Amino acid sequence: MAKGDAPSVIIVEERKPRRLKLSILTDYGIIIAFIAVFVVLSLLAPAFLSTRNMLNVLDQASQVGLVALGATVTIIGGGFDLSAGAIFAFSGAVAAFIASLGYPIPGLAVGILAGLTLGFLNGGLISGFRIDSFVTTLASGLIIRGFAFVLTAGLLIQIEDELFAMLGRGRFLEAKIPVFFFAGFAMIVWFVLARTTFGRYVYAIGGNEEAARLSGVRVGFVRTMTFAISGLSAGIAGVIGASRISTGQANVGMGIELSAIAAVVIGGTSIMGGEGAVWRTIFGVLLLQLISNGMNILNVPPFYQLAVEGSVILFAIALDSVRHRMP
Amino acid sequence: MSPSGSPIINEHKDWGSNDPQSHVRTRGISKRFGGVEALIDIDLNIARGSIHGLVGENGAGKSTLGKIVAGALRPDEGELAVDGRRVHYATPRDALIDGITMIHQEITLVPKLTVLENVYLGIESRRAGVLQARETRQRFGGLIAKSHFDLPPDALVSSLSVSDQKKVEILKAMARNARLIVMDEPTAALPDDETAKLIEIVRSLCEAGTTIVYVSHFLEEVLSVADTVTVLRNGELVRTAPAKDETPESLVTAMLGRSMSLTFPPKKFPAADAPVVFSVRHLSRRGIIEEVSFDIRAGEIVGLAGLIGSGRSEVAKTIFGADRRDSGELEIEQQPVKVDTPHEAVKEGIALLPESRKDQGLLMSLFVGHNVSLPHLATVSRGLIIESGRELRETAYILEELDVRPPEPAVRVDSLSGGNQQKVLFAKWLFRRPKLLIADEPTHGVDVGAKRTIYQLLTSLAEEGMALLLISSELEEVLGLAHRVLVMRLGRIVEELVDSPDDHSSLTEDAVMRAAFATE
Q1: Residue B436 pairs with which residues in a beta bridge?
Q2: Of A178, A188, A245, B163, which sees the most CB atoms within 10 A?
């Protein structure tokens, strides 16, 4: 039987609880882990629970969170976007470049559009030539980052204009603006995946591409759109990143796509595709951020943080594998 | 429930040890999967050197029992004795040490390795980690001599036919000195002529002293090959009896717990003036299909017969737009339609029930209801937004209509039995009634009870006025349901056999086979 859906409710035998516990662990492990880390940090570090620190955590999570929302869509659809980090850098560089010509607000908009366009190109290549998304985006990522270096001439494009910095550093109410972008985009992606026909098709092509095709789903179109969404999310994140430091540069966002994929997997979305949810990704992103924030507060040296993050990812992948092997 | 029929079953201490004839014996074996009891208190005695058939409906527990014997599953309760010794197998490897192995329903070979490499995978001759190619080759020669199989050692497994691949699996078992082989549905994927060959092989293995546990739902096949037959029903052992004392009818009665005839529902012929619903002209795909043309009228079931590889399934997939075509025009209700992709086919009212439920038909990890609505999601949506309430209601309705158990849209497909999954596949393509339903192997891998339901369903759909194209490897199914049969050979339609209400003499098995093999 699969997971803890309806049937598990009626089971009364004595053997059942063990399996039930396991399925709760694999299905909702992320929430348990999140609560556990939250409680432990609250007890260990009084500074942790302050409103200021909480808002800080959210702000720091927002960029990788945006990229992770895009990655959620591509992964559920059965693909990977390894070019997200490069798109992040390119979008920021484009925004800064145009801002440096004296158009800060159009710069930000065009930067985001550049991300969307590159995502479309990725998707078009993958669907058109039917090539593996992993390899395709690995290659296109190199090309895109290359162009980011060309655009910035390998230098920093610094923007003095305060308008440009608003997006990354401005506040609304108590929270920084990027937090609202993260929350808003999360709501949109949730709605698209859970409530629209397109969202259903994403699950279908990730679950079994051939069955989806034979059901009349336009696999190529749907797949292209998943990469467009990923490009859009990396574009928004990249522009926020450039705005935050008032600088466009080509070597930012290195590895952000991997952190994003890690957050998706930690949340419990299957790397095999066809399963997953936006709320999982949000918890995954926040858990990783809590861990790094907590270790900062507790003065744990940064290299331990990497090891801890890696261990959490390994654990999540093992759990995903166990879940798929359960009868 | 009857005991396994041996007197020493009452001796609790050494209950397996006294009978040299007994190869494997189980006592009180039970197994649960989640809340489902797959096996309940099974006592079974498998005699050495015999062919022991296991029959039952899908979900009766026959594969589970086979897997427990072969160490692929562990029982929750009960004991297993091999050669009179009590054993506890944790893995198939443990069972292999006792000479027990299993050939699964699906081929478990590595396609891109050669026959030789597959047979000796993991047990290659080696010295200090270096493969000894010549020695392995000699051992292979010995195996071939013993088995009389004619297999090229250096051919890639992926280049072999399914029956040759089965032979490789048997060689693999022999290379591991298997003295007991559990075969799970060994002929499910084989056409008739290859089935006969495989049965010969099974017999010769048995004559050489190997014990065979033969799991199958082809009753006549089991009766023809097995010495002893055990019938399972809902995880319980109904009876074990010599095969010569059983008939297909007696087995069906035992399997279902009630008597049920294996016959087809009566054919209702379409009216002579029934309009043509579907036409295809000059359908070709280079090297696979040539110049295929035919019509289907409202209420007509047209069967597509032919050997495997004759192009039957390819015609279906090409009509549906799933395979590219080089030429061919389609008409629906006498209007030309453009169908180059499955998406366009669905829009034009063509449905294809694909041959492989798991690979092509259903999304196993999704909800039943989401599978059912997938091809016609727009009809339960407003714009791009799915109206979930409506989707739930309407999918529940069709599940109810097709008697899917449970008729519950919000459960995962892989939690249902094979027969019910097949009904879900039907529900998916009948959710919005198509004009043409192409059913490719509609009863693949389902049990007798579900088969009969599906036959009735197909007949009643035709009565509604739908046009049906039926493809099946089971010829009797095509003969029993179709009003007209097109026989294919080498990608062409070579014969058209028409059944009529008052003359059944032209549509016969003999006529179909003659055309398929091109013998006069």
Answers
A1: B350, B467
A2: A178
| Chain B: residue whose CA lies nearest to A207 | B363
Considering only CB atoms, which chain A residues are within 8 Å of B415? 1-2, 5, 7
Chain B residues touching residue A218 (CB < 8 angstroms): 341, 343
- How is residue A317 written in tokens? 């992948």
Going by C-alpha positions, the residue among B334, B329, B309 that lies closest to residue B319 is B329
Identify whether B406 is preceded by a cis peptide bond (ω within 30 of 0).
Answer: yes
Kindly state whether A211 is in contact with chain B, defined as any CB-CB distance less than 8 angstroms.
yes
Are B362 and A211 a contacting pair at CB < 8 A? yes
> Rounded to an integer, what is the distance from CA B75 to the centroid of its chain?
26
| Phi, psi angles (nearest 5°) of residue B381 | -125, 155
Complex ipTM, two decimals? Answer: 0.83
| Amino acid letter, A166 | M
Give kind and range of the element (H or E) at residue B391.
helix B388-401
Percent of chain A with pLDDT over 70: 91
Reading the block at residue A119, the tokens are 């995502």
Q: Quick one: A14 exposed, middle or buried, by C-beta within 10 A (0-12, 13-18, 19+)?
A: exposed
Are A213 and B322 a contacting pair at CB < 8 A? yes
Q: SS3 for A92?
A: helix
Each residue's pLDDT tens digit, A138-196: 999 999 999 999 999 989 999 999 999 999 888 888 889 999 999 999 999 999 999 99
| Cβ pairs A/B, distance under 8 A | 107
Q: From chain B, pick out residues whose CB is under 8 angstroms from the CB of A210.
A: 359-360
* A197 close contact with B: CB closer than 8 A: yes
Write out chain B residues lying below 8 Å of A15, CB-based. Answer: 32, 76
The predicted structure's pLDDT at residue A80: 95
Q: Compute the distance between CA of residue A116 and CA of residue A227 in angstroms, rounded to an integer.
A: 9
Cα pseudo-dihedral A59, A63, A68, A69, rounded to 10: 80
Mean pLDDT by 10 residues, chain B (520 residues): 41 53 91 78 93 85 91 91 90 90 86 90 78 84 80 88 84 88 84 78 88 88 92 89 89 70 80 93 93 96 87 93 94 95 96 90 91 95 94 94 89 85 94 95 81 91 95 86 93 92 83 75
The pLDDT assigned to B455 comes to 93
